[in-house]
Write a structure and sequence with these properties.
TIM Barrel; about 15% strand; binds SN-glycerol-3-phosphate; alpha/beta
Length: about 220
């Protein structure tokens, strides 16, 4: 499963990319607004060191304007993925943009039928928002299982399942167990994946015992 980082914070992305664990980035208008920086400058900086897919979302609601915005965003770098909302205008823009060779991520997906439409619109990625479904008492991971089952029935569907709106490490594990193609993970959650108290405890015990030997590997 590929790991994308879900943020527009360039410094966070650079720091996490240094681990070699970052396969791409997703942004959205809220994440961009949070940084308070120029949208195009942020995207150019991210694409300078992240060579995997970098999602940048259109803000128009009509097909023709979405296509124009998508074409403008795609000019930033070859790895830009144009994000369009799960609307009929968004799906029409998706069909046109993917037909031109531009990668498209259909976002704000909350049902299996929406994901089916994204696949029929030749989306490169579809982003089911699991956290926001959980927030209203529904089961986000159940949706991932449904989409996986549907997509696996048809060889003609190339759309990748990009699990989004992740709130904690268990959703990353569950997404991987269900065979999602990508999880886009907030920096804080990505950093938490490594944590386990028994790892910390075991490492301390190893080093305390090693210190008693008085030896050094590099002396
Ligand atoms: O960026 C898309 C998605 O990950 C947003 O998540 O936390 O705003 O529901 P969230």
């Amino acid at each position: 499963m590929k790991f994308f980082v879900d943020t527009a914070d360039v410094d966070e992305i650079r720091d996490l990319a240094a681990t070699g664990l970052v396969d791409g980035v997703t942004t959205n208008p809220s994440l961009v607004a949070k940084e308070g920086r120029d949208f195009f400058e942020v995207l150019q900086q991210i694409c300078a060191f992240v060579k995997g897919p970098v999602s940048a979302e259109v803000t128009a609601l009509e097909t023709d304007k979405m296509i124009a915005e998508g074409r403008r965003l795609a000019q930033i770098a070859d790895n830009i993925v144009v994000k369009v909302p799960m609307t009929f205008d968004g799906l029409k823009a998706c069909k046109t943009l993917t037909g031109e060779g531009t990668m498209v991520n259909v976002t704000l997906c909350f049902s299996a039928n929406q994901a089916l439409l994204a696949a029929k619109a030749s989306a490169t990625f579809v982003s089911p928002f699991v956290g926001r479904l959980d927030d209203i008492g529904q089961d986000g991971m159940e949706l991932i299982g449904e989409i996986r089952m549907i997509f696996d029935q048809y060889d003609t569907f190339d759309t990748k399942i990009l699990v989004a709106s992740i709130r904690g490490p268990n959703q990353v594990k569950d997404a991987a167990m269900l065979g999602a193609d990508v999880a886009t993970i907030p920096p804080k959650v990505l950093r938490s994946l490594i944590n386990h108290p028994l790892t910390d405890k075991g490492l301390k015990l190893f080093l305390d015992d090693w210190q008693k030997t008085g030896q050094s590997i590099l002396k």
